[in-house]
């Protein structure tokens, strides 16, 4: 059971959060405790560690320990904060989508490298705009891959498909948030089924 300490200084609250998550064997318990405190205070890490004696409002401390308890029970930190960083961009995440993993960034790197190699083999200078290239992010989830590719390849045609309507809504919000809402075509589809049915750009919502 989480108890709000009488000492509500940033240092004391963070220390108690770390201890509770360590006792629950939560992975990366220190990082999780920090992220949850950043979330409830609306502050950054620099502020947290430069104001260790700052007293938190009781309501903030209570909200923090409520999240710590949920993390200790197994809820992912990203679902508690509603966000995860990927490719130097912040993405909304919900239980409707998988949490973007740092190692998935390697997929973006490989895609960009292979496109450059293709140009070199064709005797052309590698293009970074993506002109003439169509990319499909199958099972898009949060849309992190599609958005990252849209960022790196501004002239590429990009489709994002997912069988889950709820997941697509999250992906659409993420694309719009980063200014790529009009660049990515979202299709509700099981794998490539939408394309086998003849769907494509003509069926993609131009508003998304």
What is the H/E string? HHHHHEEHEHEHEH
- Strand portion, in percent? 5-15%
What would you call the shape? elongated
Largest beta-sheet details: 3 strands, parallel
pLDDT under 50 segments (min length 5)?
203-208
Helix content: 40-55%
In CATH terms, the superfamily of the largest domain is: Vaccinia Virus protein VP39
Given the helix and strand composition, which structural class is it?
alpha/beta
* CATH architecture descriptor text of the largest domain: 3-Layer(aba) Sandwich
Tell me what the structure shows.
With 208 residues, this protein is of the alpha/beta class. The chain folds into 2 domains: 10-81, Ubiquitin-associated (UBA) domain (Helicase, Ruva Protein, domain 3, Orthogonal Bundle); 87-203, Vaccinia Virus protein VP39 (Rossmann fold, 3-Layer(aba) Sandwich), CATH 3.40.50. Helices cover 46% and strands 12% of the residues. The longest helix has 17 residues, at 105-121. It is elongated. It starts with 9 loop residues before the first helix and ends in a 12-residue tail after the last helix.
Pick out its properties.
single chain; 208 residues; alpha/beta; Helicase, Ruva Protein, domain 3; Rossmann fold; 2 domains; three-stranded parallel beta sheet; two-stranded antiparallel sheet; 46% helix
Write a brief caption for the model.
This protein folds into two domains: 10-81, Orthogonal Bundle (Helicase, Ruva Protein, domain 3); 87-203, Rossmann fold, CATH 3.40.50.150. The chain has nine helices and five strands. It has helices at 10-23, 29-41, 45-50, 58-72, 77-81, 105-121, 144-152, 165-177, 193-196, and strands at residues 83-86, 89-92, 134-138, 157-162, 184-188.
């Amino acid at each position: 059971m989480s108890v709000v300490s009488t000492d509500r200084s940033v240092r004391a609250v963070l220390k108690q959060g770390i201890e509770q998550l360590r006792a629950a064997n939560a992975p990366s318990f220190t990082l999780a405790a920090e992220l949850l405190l950043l979330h409830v205070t609306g502050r950054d890490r620099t502020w947290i560690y430069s104001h260790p004696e700052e007293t938190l409002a009781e309501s903030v401390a209570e909200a923090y320990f409520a999240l710590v308890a949920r993390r200790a029970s197994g809820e992912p930190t990203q679902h508690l904060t509603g966000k995860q960083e990927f490719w130097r961009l912040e993405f909304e995440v919900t239980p409707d989508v998988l949490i973007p993993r740092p190692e998935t960034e390697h997929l973006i790197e490989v895609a960009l490298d292979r496109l450059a190699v293709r140009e070199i083999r064709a005797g052309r200078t590698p293009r970074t705009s993506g002109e003439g290239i169509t990319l499909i992010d199958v099972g898009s989830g949060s849309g992190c891959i599609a958005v990252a590719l849209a960022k790196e390849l501004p002239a590429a045609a990009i489709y994002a498909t997912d069988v889950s309507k709820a997941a697509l809504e999250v992906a659409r919000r993420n694309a719009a948030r980063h200014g790529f809402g009009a660049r990515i075509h979202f299709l509700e589809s099981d794998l490539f089924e939408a394309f086998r049915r003849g769907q494509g750009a003509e069926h993609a919502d131009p508003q998304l």
